[in-house]
Each structure stands twice: as C-alpha cells, then as structure tokens.
Write a structure and sequence with these properties.
Structural class: mainly beta
Shape: globular
Number of domains: 1
Order of helices and strands: HEEEEEEEEEEEE
CATH superfamily: Cellobiose dehydrogenase, cytochrome domain
CATH class: Mainly Beta
Distance between the termini: 66 Å
Helix content: 10-25%
Largest sheet: 7 strands, antiparallel
CATH topology: Immunoglobulin-like
Radius of gyration: 17 Å
Oligomer: single chain
Number of helices: 1
Strand content: 35-45%
Number of strands: 12
Length: 181
C-alpha cells in the first residue's frame, strides 16, 4: 500500500511540474528591441512576464514612470549558479530606484523561474495588475503603458548600472507597441 501511495504522489508531482512548466512558457505577446525581449500574458488579475536579454547579468523592466525613471514600478532579475533572483523596486528619482520594502512598500512580484544559458538570461514572474503597494501603479490593459526595458552586463548584481535601455509604449491587451520618446 505504501508503494502505491508513493507512486501516486510521484506521478502527481510530475504532472504538476509539467503543467507549471507549460504555463510558464506560454505568452500572448512579445516585443523585441536589440538584444532584449519582453513577452507577456494577461492572466485574470495578474500579468505573466518573461524577460530575456543577451547578457550574463541582470534583466529589468519598469512600468509607467512619470519622468525618466521616477515613479516607475521596476522588476529586476538575474540567474546565478542556476538560481533565479528577483527584486521589486520603485523609481525614487529620475535616475535611481530602491527596493519597495526599503521605502515602506511591499514585494508583490512572484518569481516563476529563470535560466542563464548561451549568454542569454531569462527571468519569468507574475505581478498583480492592481497592486496594493502604494509604490506600484494600477496597470490598464486596455490603454497605453510606458515600459522601460534594460539589462546590465557581466555581473549578477542589482547594483550594477544598465548597459542597454529603451522605452516603449505598449498596449498590454492587444500587444500593439512602438518606441516612446
């Protein structure tokens, strides 16, 4: 009887892992710019995101800054020794950002996974469309969202400056996108 239970539990865990893997890789839209891509899917009250860049450092995304980096909701990620790390931050000035938690907010991003292979870093996570953190803005999937994409090279650290960045205007509901000023 114990062996039957072990087999059933093992099969159940295997199936859960397969379903999770399938869900993590399925996205409705993707935009690419130079050596970085942003793929996403609106999933109920969450946004599922996959960031990939040609770097062995970090990848990052910011949403809806008021000017430059100020007031943006930033999510940064890297993979070190096979383990993905993620950081939820807020643009506290036009040229910097700090951890939400250091500013009295909360981390409301859920890491799904990450890989680093062949000079490419990929991080996947989900985030709420209507966060409760005072530092994060509500994401309107039917309107334009300003998206900041960036990556840093060489080091797995959230403290290194970006080596590439771009700004896009994206409609999260339709996938329409264009370069923003």
């Amino acid at each position: 009887m114990k062996n039957v239970i072990k087999v059933i539990v093992g099969v159940g865990l295997l199936l859960c892992g397969m379903v999770t893997g399938l869900q993590a890789g399925q996205y409705d839209y993707e935009v690419k710019d130079k050596n970085i891509s942003f793929a996403w899917k609106v999933d109920g009250d969450k946004l599922a995101i996959k960031l990939s860049a040609k770097t062995e450092g970090w990848v990052g995304i910011g949403f809806n800054p008021s000017k430059d980096m100020k007031d943006a909701n930033f999510i940064l990620g890297y993979v070190k020794d096979g383990e993905a790390k993620i950081s939820d931050e807020f643009g506290d000035s036009e040229s910097s950002h700090s951890l939400d938690e250091k500013l009295g907010g909360t981390t409301d991003v859920t890491l799904v996974g990450g890989t680093e292979a062949g000079g490419m870093t990929t991080v996947e996570f989900t985030m709420p469309l209507k966060p409760t953190d005072k530092h994060d803005s509500v994401m309107n999937v039917n309107g334009d969202t300003i998206v900041l994409l960036a990556y840093g090279a060489g080091r797995d650290s959230f403290k290194t400056k970006h080596t590439y960045r771009t700004t896009l205007k994206v409609n999260l509901g339709t996938g329409a996108s264009q370069k923003a000023n």
